[in-house]
Structures are given as C-alpha cells and as structure tokens.
Amino acid sequence: ELLVRCQDNNVALDDDAKIGIDNFAVCVYKKRGKSSSQQQSDDIRGVRMISSGLSLSIEEPSYLSCLFEEGGEKDDQMGRYLEVELDAEDASLRINKADCHDSAEGKEVISIYRCHYLFAKVLHELFTHNEAFPDDSHHHHGDDEPAHKKAKKVSLLDREGVVAAVGKTGSAGIPAIQQMQRWGAPASICRMMQNLLESAAETGGDAYTTVGEVGEDLHLLLFDPDRFLFDHEAQNAHNMQLLYRKEKLYGRDEEENLITDTFCRVTRGKSEAFFIGGFSGSGKSMLVDTLTVRVKNVGGYVIKHKFDAISQDRPLSGVISAVNQLCLMIKHRLTSKRLAALSKQLKDDFGADIGLLARMLPNVCALSPEFSSLAGEVEDGNTSDKMNARSVSFTLLRFVRLVSSPKRPIMLFLDDLQWADDTALDVVHTFLSDTMGSCVFFVGTYRDNEVQIGHAIFDLLQKLETSNVPTTKSSLTGLDRGDLNKMVSDALGLYPRICKSLSDIVFQKTKGNPFFVLEFIQSLQSRGLLQYDSCQKRWVWSADTIRAEEITDNVLHLLSTKLNQLSNEIQLLLKVMACFGTCTNESVIGYLSESPEYAGVRNGLEGAISEGFVELNAEGSFKFVHDKVREAAYNLTPDRDKKQLH
Fold this sequence. Notes:
The relative contact order is 0.07. Helix content is 48%, strand content 12%. Helix 14 (354-360) packs across helix 15 (370-376). With 646 residues, it is an alpha/beta fold. The strands form 5 sheets. It has a 5-stranded parallel sheet, sandwiched between helices. Strands 1-2-3 form a 3-stranded antiparallel sheet, with no helix packed on it. It has a 3-stranded antiparallel sheet with strand order 13-15-14. A hairpin with a 5-residue loop joins strand 14 (614-616) and strand 15 (622-624).
C-alpha cells in the first residue's frame, strides 16, 4: 500500500531504493527494468522511521514462507504475517513534561510526541481506508518534498499542532476517533489512538508515556486478539463475563523451570522428591499441573491423591488409591503383547502373593483375567493378618519396581500433606529410597502456615536426607504487583497500563494470593463496583469508591457471603459434598436424590456447577474448584448439626 501511494515519487532504481512517507522510510530491493509504479509488496526490504530515538523493522518470519505459494496469496487468507520490532532507549523516551520547552531535551521529547501523533495517523488510515485525518492541513509542507527534508523542515512538529489534532472538545469528541468508530474499528484500537493523541496533547488520562508501552499493547493485540483486540458484545452490561485464564499460571516461571528440571533428572533413572509449600490459594496444585502434560508426553505416568481432614482415620487409603489408578493407566497405554509380558513378570515376581496384590489393588485384575481368580482364593482372615502397614508398603514397592523405569517414570503427586500422617509418608520414603530399579518422582504440596515443628513432613525430609535421596523445596508467596496486574488485565481484557489503579487496590487487599484475587474481583463485580460499560466496550471502576468501601480481606468470609446468597438446593448440595471430602461420586448424588430429604441435590449440583463452585474431574466424580470453597461450604452447617449430617 505504501508503494502504491508513492508510485509518482522519482526514485532511482539503480540501487536499493528508499521511498519516504512522512516519518517512514520504506526500503525496497533493486528491480532493474521496473518503474516505481510496478513495485510489489514482495519487493519491500524493510521499513524504518526517520525520527531520532526510534527505529522500527518489519519482516516476515522465514518459517512462514511455506504457507504462501509463489502464485500469490489464497482467497481465504487475511493477509501476510509480519513481525514488528521497536527499538528505543527508555532513557531518551521518558516524558518529563516540566522540562519540555526550548531545551535540546525538550525538542527530543517533542519528537516522541510526534511519534505518538504519527502512529495515531497510521491507525486512522488503516481503519478508515485513507480518509483524511482531521485538522491536519497545517502539516503539509509540499507533497513532493522528500521525507528526510520534510522532517528537518518541521523540526519534528510543533506542539501546538499536536494539541490542535486532539481538539478542545476532550478525548470523547476527537474527530479522528469518531471517524474510526463510523468505520467499525474495534474499541481497543480507538482507545489506543485516543491515548496516543492524549500523550501528544498532554491531556493526561491513560496517555502513553513511552513508545515501549505502545509496543507492549500492540503485542497483546497481535497474539491474543480474542481477548484484547475484538469487541466483547453482551445483551446487557449485567451478564458480561470476566475473561479469566483459569489454566494460566502467573508469576511462577522460576518455580516452573525448577520442577521441570527436577523431573528431567528423574528420567535418567534416579528417584527424587519435590516439596512445595505455600498458603492456600497460592497456586501449588496449578504449578504441579503444568508438569503433568510433560510427564505424559515422555511416556510417564501421573498418579495423585488429595488428603483432607475427614479421611485422616484411613492413612494408607490415599496412597493405595493412587497406585490403584496406575493399573488402569498401564492397561490403556501398553500393547496387548507388552501387557501379557508384564502380567507374566508380576506373576513370577509375586508368586503366591499375587492374590494379596490383587485384593489390595483391585484394578490390577484389569491387567490379566487370571488375577481375578487368584484374588478370590485369598481368605479375608489371612489378608487382615498379613496387611499391616509395613507389608502394604513393601507390596506396593514391588509393584512399582516392575512397572516403572527411566523410560516410564511414575510421578506421585500427594496434595495437602498437612493432613497426612507418618504412615502414608513412610510409603513415600520406601519408594524413593529404593535402590533396586524403581523410578519415582514424588511431588508433595502443603500449607506451610498450617504445619508445626514435629509434623510428619519434617520427619520425611529428614529420612530422605539420611537416605541420600535428592530433595528440592520451594515455597510460593503472593504474586508481585506486575504479575497481579497481568492477571487483572487478562480478566478485564484491558491493556495492563490501564488496570494499574485497580490492581493496586486488589494487591493491598489480597497480598497477591491468586485465588483470592479472582474472588475479590468477582465480589467487586457482584457489588456493582466493577461494571461493564456497553458504550465504551470496556470494564470501568472508580478507585476512590472501591477504597472507601468496607470490603473484607478474608477470602473465607468472602466465599461464605457468596454461598449464603445461593438457593437452598445449591446450599444443600454443597453441604453434602463437603461431608464427603474433596470428591463425591455420581452414584452418591444419584442415591441421595432418591430420598425425600435430599431430593434437591440433583438440581443443586447443576446450579453449583453453573455458579462455578463445583466441577467434574477426570475420574468422573465431582469436586470443589478449591479447598477454600469446600471449607466455606462445610461451615454452612452449624456445628451442632454436623455430626447428624455426616
């Protein structure tokens, strides 16, 4: 498009040509025999800006060349993908409005104003199909004049001209933006242009202060257009949903790399342990979840169990249940030939004890039909005599030795270790200290503010050190202000620089706890302190109003308030599920719904899922989205009635 507009320029084609357009210089390759009017987009070598302090390069990545045929673009292609790189020195691009008059520094600052103004013009031309830019007549100094001479002549634009472009009617009445809106430009682009012109006119608001900020916003528009570029339509402002990234882990890059590196060492054949401490809601489980995909991709198995206060009277059940999951994973992963070979290994290794293994791990019968009959031969009396904690631990270890290897490591994830006792953690020590071929990566998470000196976790750490088992410890704290601001920005679909006033308040209230951040923002929305403006097509708030409100800084109290506003059927369902611990099977819901007293739990389940308090997990059972939700749901029942409900 730039070449077409400059086809009348007298450009010498003997050398690589430079075609100047206002503040831009478009470089093209030498094409002998072609006039400037015959230049094509493929002849472009690069684009740069004439203004000092800023350089810009645009290029098409080489790895995308295979997507385009030599004959040109296909009809269904929207255009070619370009990478844009802005290179500017922050020190020279910071705007100091107090010193922007006749000094050399002031002239350089004016050049930044000019950059912002010119970029606003580019946006306007792109989205209005070259419609004339309002109030721009005083910028013409001869259309035929070369760009570099024009730049010197106007000395990068006088500030009065920039102010005139914004106008005296305020940012809401900027004619250029009104033109873009008539052409259907997205609100995000109009907002960017408004902030560029606000910067040029020094009118405050959300004005850009550096060219780098413009580049950051462009990056968001390019790589996440659904969230930041396109308008979000809603039937009315009240049903507009926040755009949470529930799958994204914010501010944990260092910890994510640490746990990944640890697992990579395990794949070399040496078992290791990784402990993660942190407050409830700090993202411990999400950090572990980032690794599970990698473990599966290299052929490993991921088994897990979540402890809770209710199941403390069955200390080994959690570990046994986790290993029992492994049997079905093996059946689905191995070919029939390898499955038969493994079944023979198990039978040869366990001998007469194969029946005990089958009774301890019922799913092992899925590996071979023969194991079912052997399990039936074991008498109940003999089982109870033999199945003490030590024999259970040793039996599980023998099984893990046979099914794990460096090529198929086992990742054992035990969540909420603050509820575990030494019996369960002794099994973990047995797995990790084995030197006869087992390959296990143990990951344990716990609330470090809820464990005291003398807890079984510290005993396990001491034993692992004595056994020379490599152990890594990590502790998650709250997000810093920058990462929290990214989280809020994603939820609102707004540029991060615009969200800072809200993020600062959220940080003060939540101390950066990720789960609390989400709940706090939702509470602002439900109370009308955070609203979606359909005219501006963005979320709006008053920082002063939010600061003046009495809003609790206790996430449990916040959740309890929300749960008390739910229907009786949803509350009944949540109370019942809280009594069953972390997960509740579908069969339990079905059984209870048949009784008159709990007939409403089925409808309550649908409502709890719709409200975002309960979700269906991979095993087909229902679970609370977070421990704090279960804790708040359990507190719905008065203490005097809890025993009866159980």
